[in-house]
Amino acid sequence: MTEVKEQNESGQVLDNTNTNEPSNNRVSENHSSSHLKNVEAPEMQIESEDEGENETILRLTSQKLSEIPADIAQTKGETVRTLVLTNNKIRSLANLQYFKRLETLQLDRNGMLDIDDMPKMPYLRTLWLNNNQLSDMHNLLKILAKNCPRLSYLSLLRNPVCPSIYFTHGNEDKYRRYRFTVLYHLHGLTYLDTTEVTQKEQKEALEKGKFLVVKKTFTTTS
């Protein structure tokens, strides 16, 4: 079992507690030299860390939103750099285009089926999509590669596209192939699913990823 600590080196955390509990109860996977040590416990809830309050951060957590309110987007979009939409019912990314200089987007726990209407996000570096229902790997990677050229931190844990990591269930190779596929298409990633991308892994992904290109919906069933 992977050792956990309160905050990882990139400033993100994994939340295995209820979202209403104090933030100091949140823990994160400890980065290690092997990404396969990043084990996801069955009961773990994955969520990114809330950041300090200031005018560049807009937090709309747990508001039962199905999309970003247009009036808020138009009023605050120009100044916001971090947008937190955790634990809503987001099904559409309408109005995200108003956040023209957004750098961090948190969309954990929304039950999202796709990101088909994601606009171009030229400054986006961090994207959290944990605990959703994303199942089409090909379409997901195509959109991210096209619309998020500066993306460096991506987390997709607890989605159908991301195999659960249980050594006892034999998913080690499946998760490795998943990482190679993602890194082959998104060359700029330095972290995937809270774990650092090593130079060796990136090289392997470029060599092997072309043989793992997904043409149809990606599934994780045996």
Helix content: 10-25%
Kindly identify the CATH topology.
Answer: Leucine-rich repeat, LRR (right-handed beta-alpha superhelix)
Q: Roughly what is the average pLDDT, rounded to an integer?
A: 79
In the CATH scheme, the class would be Alpha Beta
Distance between the termini: 23 Å
CATH architecture: Alpha-Beta Horseshoe
- Give the overall silhouette: globular
Estimated radius of gyration: 17 Å
Strand order of the largest sheet: 3-4-5-6-7-8-9
Contiguous low-pLDDT stretches (5 residues minimum) are 1-44, 215-222
Alpha plus pi helix count: 4
Task: Give a short synopsis of this structure.
InterPro entries: Leu-rich_rpt, LRMDA, LRR_dom_sf. This protein has one domain: Alpha-Beta Horseshoe (Leucine-rich repeat, LRR (right-handed beta-alpha superhelix)), CATH 3.80.10.10. The protein is 19% helix and 10% strand.
Tags for this entry?
disordered C terminus, 222 residues, Leucine-rich repeat, LRR (right-handed beta-alpha superhelix), alpha/beta, two-stranded antiparallel ribbon, 9 strands, disordered N terminus
Question: Explain this structure to me?
Answer:
- With 222 residues, the chain is of the alpha/beta class.
- The protein has a single domain (47-212), classed as Ribonuclease Inhibitor (Leucine-rich repeat, LRR (right-handed beta-alpha superhelix)), CATH 3.80.10.10.
- The chain has helices spanning 70-76, 137-147, 172-185, 199-208; strands at 4-5, 28-29, 57-59, 82-84, 104-106, 126-128, 153-155, 191-192, 195-196.
- It has a seven-stranded mixed sheet with strand order 3-4-5-6-7-8-9, with no helix packed on it. A two-stranded antiparallel sheet has the order 1-2.
- α3 (172-185) packs across α4 (199-208).
- It is globular and about 45 Å long.
- The chain starts with a strand and ends in a 14-residue tail after the last helix.
